[in-house]
């Protein structure tokens, strides 16, 4: 079973990396960019019997390793 | 206009970071993980008149900065 986990910074958490990308895009002549925030994506291949089991495994993975829940949110998409 | 750009490694490109995450999840007792590949996500706020203009701006951003087209694919989602 294939799944995608997207980890993004919570609102209000500063994102200097995103700010740098925003500035770089402007320098490169890409117009209309008003803001950038960077996050992480994990494409996970799972051996799970059903979607509920897959979701439980991914939730555990996020809480234990993939996301820092103090400053990050995660979203799970199961294909 | 809000948009999300997802940059992932092309198939066949080695992903040692993903392999390390896979091993770490196994060590932490998360079961059923058969593979992990890590990518990047960019949440972009755009000043664009319409979806076509937004898509053109994002495509330029990906080609110029966000993705390395030799080893990475990108996908654009406009909200």
UniProtKB/TrEMBL annotation, chains A, B:
GO terms for cellular component: cytoplasm. Its EC number is 6.3.5.3. Pathway: Purine metabolism; IMP biosynthesis via de novo pathway; 5-amino-1-(5-phospho-D-ribosyl)imidazole from N(2)-formyl-N(1)-(5-phospho-D-ribosyl)glycinamide: step 1/2. Its main location: cytoplasm. It catalyses: N(2)-formyl-N(1)-(5-phospho-beta-D-ribosyl)glycinamide + L-glutamine + ATP + H2O = 2-formamido-N(1)-(5-O-phospho-beta-D-ribosyl)acetamidine + L-glutamate + ADP + phosphate + H(+). Keywords: ATP-binding, Cytoplasm, Ligase, Nucleotide-binding, Purine biosynthesis. It is found in: Cytoplasm. GO terms for molecular function: ATP binding; phosphoribosylformylglycinamidine synthase activity. InterPro entries: PurS, PurS-like_sf. One of its GO terms (biological process) is 'de novo' IMP biosynthetic process. Part of the FGAM synthase complex composed of 1 PurL, 1 PurQ and 2 PurS subunits. Belongs to the PurS family. HAMAP family: PurS. Part of the phosphoribosylformylglycinamidine synthase complex involved in the purines biosynthetic pathway. Catalyzes the ATP-dependent conversion of formylglycinamide ribonucleotide (FGAR) and glutamine to yield formylglycinamidine ribonucleotide (FGAM) and glutamate. The FGAM synthase complex is composed of three subunits. PurQ produces an ammonia molecule by converting glutamine to glutamate. PurL transfers the ammonia molecule to FGAR to form FGAM in an ATP-dependent manner. NCBIfam families: phosphoribosylformylglycinamidine synthase subunit PurS, PRK05974.1. This is Phosphoribosylformylglycinamidine synthase subunit PurS.
